[in-house]
Design goal:
Elements: H1 3-21, H2 27-38, H3 51-63, H4 66-69, H5 79-94, H6 99-120, E1 127-131, H7 136-149, H8 153-156, E2 166-171, H9 178-186, E3 193-196, H10 210-222, E4 226-233, H11 245-254, E5 258-262, H12 276-279, E6 286-289, H13 291-295, E7 302-306, H14 311-316, H15 324-327, H16 331-363, E8 369-371, E9 382-386, H17 406-424, E10 431-435, E11 439-444, H18 446-453, H19 457-489, E12 494-497, E13 506-510, H20 519-538, E14 546-547, E15 559-561, H21 570-620, H22 629-636, E16 646-649, E17 654-657, H23 659-664, H24 698-701, H25 742-750
Parallel strand pairs: 2-3, 2-4, 4-5, 5-6
Antiparallel strand pairs: 1-7, 6-7, 8-9, 9-11, 10-11, 12-13, 13-15, 14-15, 16-17
Domain PDXDC1/PDXD2 second: 379-478
Pfam families: PDXDC1-like_cen, PDXDC1-like_cen2, Pyridoxal_deC
InterPro entries: GrpII_AminoAcid_Decarb, PDXDC1-like_2nd, PDXDC1-like_3rd, PyrdxlP-dep_de-COase, PyrdxlP-dep_Trfase, PyrdxlP-dep_Trfase_major
Length: 751
């Protein structure tokens, strides 16, 4: 072996070990890094760095925040992935070869890769175009179609298009933004794009309406337009359904149009048994393949296979290039396909298809789960949705069977279901998809995720197990939503918040009962009460999840309750919210009145101090107030003055005398009784709040499906019935003379 190639392979292996090791640098290194690149770009070092240091920098950039946010493991890159990465390094090395040797090598790489792909995917006599952006192949096909229909396009340009506008047709189920991207790249107006609706009366709801397409083409031809190209799906991005490719091919032949097909179902062409609808794609003019996610190959290009007999037009469309460097795009794929071999490629595609069938078989046994698959025997994409039997639409409908607002509620619950499944079973690769007819669904597409995540049969079994645990929770939540609303509407101090996008029981707001405040003060009080109420509810020992609502919720100062279990006592929940809210409101009123009470007490204390000084002056006489004279008189004839202190009862807001304190050597404080907050609902030993006693739903409540609070609050089972607040301020009057200005100091001390 060439020593340079061997060294390159060793360096790549060492680099991958460093990047995948997950070992971070030392604490000393972290401190130094904070001053260099952590927060701002640093200058380029003059003496350079070695390879290990640079790789360590890359590794720190990739995993630098793992210690704060939890370790996030990268996607596993297997040996076949290492071959793809080696291909990028080899492409840079090969590009420096002499021109003739480079031309021979690139020609061999292109020929081999194209031959292998055409045989694997049953596309006979095809050519291949390799591109990084998976939409770029379709752009080139449009250019090829334009050069084919407009013979002088290479010299006349877009002036030819003004007399006969080209039209590009695409299904309404195509990925969003595809048609707009084509028009932008081709310089065509959006009027050149025609969106063909899907079937609405019969057949799949995700297949292109062929009869309507035929009518649209005829209308465009009669108006002087040129039908140019049709984009069809072999596996729609949302539900994985395949258009009627055979019938569409007949229409394209009839009207001399180019037929391009893309979709995940094209991967099944390598299998021994393929549905006839997908096999029809091999007769189309071009297909786009994405072997990277199908086979778990990172950074490999997408491939567009096409048939065309004129090399000059292909060159004009940019499908072929005389630059050898551009031909090296196929090198990573060339290496990876050789490493996997025919059997390895077949095994990966077959494994993904078997995972889909395994999940589909289990879903059939689960109640309240509706699936949306095109072919139950060969569908590589499984889309399912939670739906109550009494609210599910008919098989051929479009959701019109739902009651008003119930569709949005089910969408919210299914969105929560998909997020929970993706979080608790991450290796399953499920995600949430929005479909026009079905609504929000959960999608399982192992052809796009299994190879990268390493999904196995036990992951599908774990997915089904979690789904079985969550179905009762979803059913109970949907059933208790109306009960919760009815209970809230019966409480004058609560307002029900209608938010159908919230996955849970619903929202509520505690309304302040005071009506003598202006709007701003009332809103502030409502905000404070509901904020404190939310904190108190979150501290309770319960399985319920309390939140301030969705991120973009229009309603403010609300409390939203999450998913419910079968043993939930809705009436007790609402009564507890009212009770805690009332306690918070009354406590707030007490503190709001505290300022006024203290102010009046200080004023009264000032008046009594002034009166006491006047009485002292009258009792002792004027001579005792004169310096030196008063001291002599006090020495010869002491005055027996009694202490006249005052105590301020904050609860009653009044001043009392402290004479009983000094007379009996004990302070007699009047008992002030305040309204006591009601205790939290009675709780049996070992039972959490808001559960009906004796309800047989232990298996449901113990599940991890419901979001549980991490902290529990049980400092007191009952709030004390009496609460006393006493602030004692003693204002003792000494038997000696009070200097001038001493009265003011006493008042300031009290304040």
């Amino acid at each position: 072996m060439d020593p340079t190639l061997a060294e390159m392979g060793n360096h790549l292996s060492d680099a991958m070990k460093i990047l995948e090791s997950g070992k971070l640098e030392s604490e000393q290194g972290k401190e130094r890094r904070k001053l260099s690149w952590k927060d701002f770009p640093g200058p380029l070092q003059g003496d350079g760095q070695d390879v290990v240091s640079i790789l360590q920098l890359v590794q720190n950039l990739m995993h630098g925040d793992d210690d704060q946010q939890g370790h996030r493991r990268m996607q596993y890159v297997g040996e076949q992935g290492h071959m793809a990465l080696l291909g990028h390094s080899l492409a840079a090395y090969i590009s420096v070869l002499e021109r003739e040797r480079l031309r021979k090598l690139t020609t061999r790489i292109l020929s081999d890769t194209t031959l292998w792909l055409c045989r694997l995917f049953r596309y006979e006599n095809g050519s291949a175009y390799y591109h990084e952006d998976d939409r770029e192949g379709l752009v080139k096909m449009c250019r090829l179609a334009i050069n084919t229909h407009y013979e002088d396009y290479a010299t006349e340009g877009f002036t030819l298009l003004s007399s006969k506008h080209p039209v590009i047709y695409q299904s309404a189920a195509c990925r969003p933004g595809l048609g707009q991207h084509l028009c932008s790249q081709l310089g065509l107006p959006l009027s050149s794009l025609c969106i063909v609706p899907c079937n609405t009366m019969f057949g799949s709801l995700h297949q292109m309406d062929v009869a309507l397409l035929d009518k649209l083409i005829r209308d465009d031809r009669e108006s002087g337009k040129l039908p140019l190209l049709l984009i069809a799906n072999a596996g729609t991005p949302g539900a994985g359904h395949t258009d009627k490719l055979s019938r569409l091919k007949e229409l394209c032949v009839q009207y001399n149009m180019w037929l391009h097909v893309e979709g995940v179902n094209l991967a099944t062409l390598v299998l021994g048994q393929v549905s006839s609808t997908v096999t029809a794609a091999t007769k189309c003019d071009s297909i786009t393949l994405t072997p990277g996610p199908w086979l778990g190959l990172p950074a490999v290009p997408a491939v567009t296979l096409y048939r065309h007999e004129d090399p000059a037009l292909s060159l004009a469309a940019g499908l072929t290039s005389s630059q050898p460097v551009e031909k090296l795009r196929a090198l990573p794929l060339w290496l990876s396909l050789q490493y996997l071999g025919h059997d390895g490629i077949l095994q990966r595609i077959k494994h993904a298809s078997q995972l889909s069938q395994q999940l589909l078989e289990h879903l059939k046994t689960l109640a309240s789960i509706k699936t949306s698959v095109e072919d139950e025997l060969n569908s590589p994409v499984v889309v399912f949705r939670f739906s109550q039997d009494n609210s599910a639409p008919s098989s051929g409908g479009s959701g019109e069977g739902y009651l008003a607002g119930e569709r949005d509620i089910l969408d919210a619950l299914n969105r929560w279901l998909g997020e929970q499944l993706a979080q608790q079973v991450p290796l399953s690769g499920v995600d949430v998809v929005e479909l026009e007819d079905e609504g929000t669904c959960v999608r399982f597409s192992p052809l796009m995720t299994a190879a990268a995540l390493g999904t196995q049969e036990n992951d599908v079994a774990a997915l089904v197990e979690k789904l079985g645990e969550m179905i009762p929770v979803l059913s109970c939540t949907l059933r208790f939503r109306q009960d919760f609303k009815d209970e809230v509407l019966q409480k004058a101090s609560l307002s029900y918040i209608e938010d159908q996008s919230w996955p849970g029981l619903g929202g509520v707001r505690y309304e302040a009962r005071t009506t003598d405040l202006d709007e701003d003060k009332r809103q502030y009080r409502v905000e404070r009460i509901n904020s404190d109420l939310l904190k108190k509810l979150m501290e309770l020992d319960t399985d319920l999840y309390f939140s301030d609502g969705p991120e973009f919720c229009e309603e403010k100062n609300c409390i939203f309750i999450g998913m419910a279990t079968e043993d939930l006592d809705v009436a007790e929940l609402v009564e507890t919210i009212v009770s805690i809210g009332r306690d918070i409101e009354e406590s707030g009123k007490l503190f709001e009145n505290m300022t006024e009470v203290v102010r009046r007490g200080i004023q009264e204390a000032e008046q009594q101090l002034q009166k006491a000084n006047e009485e002292k002056l009258m009792e002792e006489g004027v001579l005792r107030q004169i310096p030196l004279v008063g001291s002599v008189l006090n020495w010869f004839s002491p005055v027996q003055a009694s202490v006249k202190g005052r105590t301020f009862n904050l609860a009653e807001g009044c001043l009392d005398s402290t004479e009983p304190v000094y007379s009996v050597k004990a302070q007699m404080i009047k008992e002030a009784s305040l309204d006591s907050p009601k205790s939290v609902a009675k709780q049996f030993p070992g039972q959490k709040l808001f559960r009906r006693h004796g309800a047989g739903s232990d298996s449901v409540s113990d599940t991890s499906s419901v979001s549980q609070l991490e902290e529990s609050f049980r400092e007191t089972a009952e709030v004390p019935q009496e609460h006393h607040v006493h602030i004692v301020a003693e204002m003792a009057l000494s038997d000696q003379r009070v200097p001038e200005g001493q009265e003011t100091e006493s008042v300031d001390t009290l304040r």
